[in-house]
Amino acid sequence: MFDLTSRDIKYLPGVGPQRAAILNKELSVCSMHDLLYYFPYKYVDRSRLYYIHEIDGNMPYIQLKGEILSFETFGEGRQRRLVAHFSDDTGVVDLVWFQGIKYLSGRYKTHTKYIVFGKPTIFNGRINIAHPDIDPAEGLVLSDMGLQPYYNTTERMKRSGLNSHALGKLTSNLLALLKEPMPETLPEWLVKQHQLMSLDEALRNIHFPHTPESLRRAQYRLKFEELFYVQLNILRYAKDRARKYNGFIFSQVGDIFNTFYRHYLPFELTGAQKRVIKEIRRDMGSGRQMNRLLQGDVGSGKTLVALMSMLIALDNGYQTCLMAPTEILASQHYDTIRKLLGSMPVKVELLTGSVKGKKREAILRSLTLGETHILIGTHAVLEDTVCFSSLGMVVIDEQHRFGVAQRAKLWNKNTRPPHVLVMTATPIPRTLAMTLYGDLDVSVIDELPPGRKPIQTIHQFDNRRASLYASIRKQIQEGRQVYIVYPLIQESEKMDIKNLEEGYEHICAEFPEYKVSKVHGKMRPADKEAEMQRFVTGETQIMVATTVIEVGVNVPNASVMVIENAERFGLSQLHQLRGRVGRGADQSYCILVTGYKLSEDTRKRIQIMVDSNDGFEIAEADLKLRGPGDLEGTQQSGIAFDLRIADITHDGQLLQFVRDIAQAVVDGDPTESNPQNAILWTQLKMLRKTNINWSAIS
């Protein structure tokens, strides 16, 4: 059998160079294998014929058999439409086309039997079917038609005649070429054990299923395989690493930790914090390198957990390091940790890009000598000049802002890689966490410290500015500060979004008695930091910004977050932004400002924000509404997140199931030498070539 991956799509009957160029560009379909794995997104039952007299305007897709009585054209220019009057002797419907009229006029003949397929609607009291599929009636046997596949296509493809129907035809041509069964990609024992459909059957039935049952089995087989290999890849990598790298054993919890716990703890730990610290202690004492992801909503007390974990490392004679994505965030961690430690004999240093000259030299020297216990910094920590005496633990804040290569650099700071604790305030649903960070153990802080008041979220339409500004003024008079966030910096031609610059001028004019800061992504980093700093110190009362303020900055005095054009943001992003307020003991507010016209989806999103403060609940809802590809953090994490058929929103159970199977394979065949699994390791190598899953190094 010929290799489909190396066979160019242009050689498939019905394609040719022109169509091949469109398929390449629009769908990234370059080979015959790509087309075979371009799956339909829905199926419609075409095994039944309806009569015209049975039709009403509320029906789904239907199928009719009859003939065209006559054609008419209406309107001029862009308004032009072609109408065919179609009858089956029980009534007449209008078939309507708004595009491709020239192409269609000579294609269909009157008084010839056709099968028409489409969605009926009622217009001016007549039944219409817009842009129907039409096939000659002879030679079509109903029972064979089964479920018709529908493929996603683009506007450009449709203009070139490559609609869903045409893609189906090309796929059918491809399957007709394959005289022998497709070679299996899973070992025989796995297929038998889990009663999976063969790959050949699954690929034929995913495109052209004869029955709903054969479609269900084909989908299950292909989803199973896809998720299985994602998990096998991650787990094998994790196993490799665990074998290569033993971790430091932190056997004791000593004076430093206990002194802090007894005398310096600012408040009683929540149950969730205690649970997570236990998990971390267990990891660091186990002899294997810790790789743990700590998830917790904004304000849940992750920094305190990270500090107490670092104190365990100090008790065992090792240095620690905390890395944050921006200078301002690193400075805040530095201040917070110094404040928490009070007069304890723990030396903490801050190293960022702006620390220069003698000060920098002194810090580097004290690190090398082992005098500095905790180093807090930005990317500057990764530079080759930064050497530790004995680095035992690394904490990485806001993990999705750091690339894989940067994290790998940290490992080289020691002969043995340090324990790694990765923190994120972007709550990730469990199924997504297993796929994105499958080799990390996950801990969750799911309760807020006592004394924190939940943020009140209000939805307001943008025609009620006067009352909005009155409430902002009232908050500032009470000594609070306010964020106002805009989605864009430059006016986009397509979107009538209030521009940040305009917004800034408007706010300055509206509140002449107060000072206003402005921050956006196009500013020089130093200017951005300076403006942020002005707001942090209380020099300015209002901060007008784009989403650059999303991560980490802590201003306890800020109690109002106004988000303009809130409909333009995803749920996770809105939740992250909302978390910038509510850091103090006062009641805080998040006001979502939108236009009046909102889609159903947007209304749902806004309502979820108003109803819930739970980051995990919101992340789950976001996953369901938007799918995994857009979730905060997944874009930057370097994952090859290219699932063709599985959907981690809906296939969470299957993901867990295949993960356990993959785990058993990795444990049972650690050297990858079992002949039963040969096919499996070969397939994994091939997939890794095409789809490298970098997240495995996190």
User: How far apart lie the N and C ends?
Assistant: 40 Å
Strand content: 15-25%
Shape: globular
Cα radius of gyration in angstroms: 31 Å
Mean pLDDT, to the nearest integer, reads 83
Describe the structure.
The structure is a single chain. By secondary structure, the protein is an alpha/beta fold. Helices cover 39% and strands 17% of the residues. The chain has a seven-stranded mixed beta sheet, with no helix packed on it. A seven-stranded parallel beta sheet has the order 12-13-11-14-15-10-16, with helices on both faces. Helix 10 runs antiparallel to helix 12 (302-315). It starts with 15 loop residues before the first helix and ends in an 8-residue tail after the last helix.
What features would you highlight for this structure?
disordered C terminus; OB fold (Dihydrolipoamide Acetyltransferase, E2P); alpha/beta; seven-stranded parallel β-sheet; 698 residues
List the helices and strands and how they pair.
Elements: H1 16-27, H2 32-36, E1 42-45, E2 62-74, E3 81-87, E4 92-97, H3 101-105, E5 113-118, E6 120-123, E7 126-130, E8 133-136, H4 142-145, E9 147-150, H5 155-159, H6 164-177, H7 188-193, H8 199-207, H9 212-244, H10 255-264, H11 271-284, E10 291-296, H12 302-315, E11 319-323, H13 327-341, E12 348-351, H14 357-368, E13 374-377, E14 391-397, H15 404-411, E15 419-424, H16 430-436, E16 441-445, E17 456-461, H17 465-477, E18 481-485, H18 500-510, E19 516-519, H19 525-536, E20 542-545, E21 558-563, H20 571-578, E22 589-594, H21 600-611, H22 615-626, H23 652-668, H24 678-690
Parallel strand pairs: 4-7, 10-15, 10-16, 11-13, 11-14, 12-13, 14-15, 17-22, 18-20, 18-21, 19-20, 21-22
Antiparallel strand pairs: 1-9, 2-3, 2-5, 3-4, 5-8, 6-7
Helix pairs in contact: 8-9, 9-23, 10-12, 11-12, 21-22
